Amino acid sequence: MSVVIVESLRRLMAPGDGVIITPPVYPPFFDLVVEAGGRVVEVPLLDDAASYRLDLPGIDAALRAGACGVLLCNPHNPVGLVHSREELERLSEIVAEHDGFVVSDEIHAPLTHHGTKFTPYLSVSDAAREHGVAAESGSKAFNLAGLKTAMFVVDSEPMTRWLDQLPDEVSYRTGSFGLLATREGFRDSLDWLDETITVIQDNTELLEREVAEKLPGVVVRRGRATYLAWLDMRALGWGDDPAAYALEHTEVALSNGPRFGDAGKGFARINLACAPETIVEAVDRLSRAVR
Fold first, then answer.
1. Strand 228-232 with 219-221, pairing
2. Which terminus of the chain has fewer Cβ atoms in its 10 Å neighbourhood, N or C?
């Protein structure tokens, strides 16, 4: 997936151009922009303590100030935000007004929860199709990351011509086994995926119950996609990086919130793609440290 993102950015921007990312966001985004030769421009998500959303005026201002495009996380890791069609449509209008681009990382799209509708960026408007490229993969849905397969997706003549100009060497980085496994996943394993999403949602509800009972003050910021949950642990007084405290004092390995940007200070990410007993044990250990 990183190859698709970096190669897209390299060909959509000039060296030193600013690329907008929206923290708290998947930590490699910070590095991928730099690897492509760009400069990170942070426009944090808006957070009203109940939900997150894109800061569209902030993105508009950053583009007006010289940023050239947006690296979008859709659905958003770590908060599980599934961007609405209305927000994505407005984003496409803003980007088009500034003659910019969007690279939409949609790796978690297959893991959108039941009852929630995922909107691909390229589906929202002609403007999005004219300036957008989506990065797609079965890596998260079917646990295929080690097999190294991802896809560029475009949906307009200008972007098709752009894609045709990619060097052949880019496609050579695809793993043959990954290609076969990805095809098998999306063609013949959707029933398995459906059951997997149900398990993830059950685990999310279990986490919410366990945290409410045993970790008062901790807030589970529940998303509508991914197998991850975002924990607001600021009330515990464990500092900017509660995951570091948790690892040292409870041997529970959470993802360190500050790695997702300044907006992640006091937060941690937990992986729910595990047995329910693991979630219960993790919360029990964390609660003992609180006591």
1. antiparallel
2. C
Those residues with Cβ within 8 angstroms of residue 86's Cβ, 6 or more apart along the chain or in another chain: none
Give residues with Cβ within 8 angstroms of 18, minimum separation 6. 38, 39, 40, 41, 62, 65, 66, 67, 68
Q: How far apart are CA 263 and CA 139, in angstroms?
A: 26
Q: Which amino acid would we find at residue 279?
A: I
d(CA 170, CA 178): 15
Q: Is 135 exposed, middle or buried (0-12, 13-18, 19+ CB in 10 A)?
A: buried
| Global model pTM greater than 0.85 | yes
The long-range contacts involving 162-166, CB below 8 angstroms and separated by at least 24 positions, are 162/11, 162/12, 162/133, 163/133, 165/11, 166/7, 166/11
The predicted model gives 43-62 an average pLDDT of 95
Position of tokens 């403007």?
127
33 backbone dihedrals φ, ψ, rounded to 5°: -60, -45
Pairing mode, if any, of strands 46-47 and 52-53? antiparallel
C-alpha to C-alpha distance for 210 and 152, rounded to whole angstroms: 40
Tokens found for residue 102: 């969007």
Report the distance separating Cα 67 and Cα 41, nearest Å: 7
- pLDDT for residue 172: 76
Name every residue whose Cβ is closer than 8 Å to that of residue 68 and which is 6 or more positions away in sequence. Answer: 12, 13, 14, 17, 18, 19, 100, 101
